[in-house]
Structures are given as C-alpha cells and as structure tokens.
Amino acid sequence: MTALTDTDVQALLSAPNCAVLSTQNGNGSILSTVVWIAYEDGELFVNSSVGRRWPTNLGHDQHATVVVMNPENPFSFLEVRGTVTSSVERGLDDINRLSHKYLGRDYPWLKDGEQRITFVLEPTRVRFVKQ
Fold first, then answer.
1. Residues forming beta bridges with residue 47, ordered by sequence position
2. Which terminus of the chain, N or C, has fewer Cβ atoms within 10 Å?
3. What is the mean pLDDT of residues 86-106?
C-alpha cells in the first residue's frame, strides 16, 4: 500500500507541482480546481480564500480528492482521497508557506480583508502510479 511518506510520493509532493482538487457541488456535480499543495509535518494541505466555490463545497461535504501529476510524465501521478478539516487561524501563514514553495516569496495577491482558509486532507486512500 502506498503512503504519503514513500520516497517517490515525497519527491512529487516536495516539488512545486500543482494539484487538481475535486469537490462535490450542491447539485452533485464535481468541481475540479488547480491548487498549490504541500505535505509538511505529516499533513497534506491546500489553501484558499473563504467564499470561493471549492472551499464552500468542502464546508458542506468534507470529502475531497487530489491528483498530483509528474509534469515530465503525467502518467506518473499521485491520487489521494479523503476527508478534510479546516482552519482559518492558520490560513494566512499557510498561504505564505505555499507561496514560498511555488513563487519563492510571500503571497503577493492578498486583498484587504481577505480571509484565508487551510484544508488538511486526511487520506482514506493513497495511490501512486509510476510509469
């Protein structure tokens, strides 16, 4: 069974590879969104602005799936299914952590009054395909 701590999985997650996060809309359809992702201190997390569609979806249904592909070979990928917990208390710190991973600096697009929210994904299934 694959674990988030496996060497190949860690290599994919530690690089600045974007993920596709899928949540369920209120009408049952699926919403897929490209997000920044990190695995630090035993937590797989993503971050967004409060009020956007996918965070709102997770407020109604905590189930989510993320897929991270190897940009050099998209047939090598990580899929993680699970449930999320959320935190606005750590939202600003986490968007800056993610921004440093992807941009090398603090998050430059923060708007006045914007509230950030972090979602930690607790895996129920981890699948890694290497081709």
1. 118
2. N
3. 98
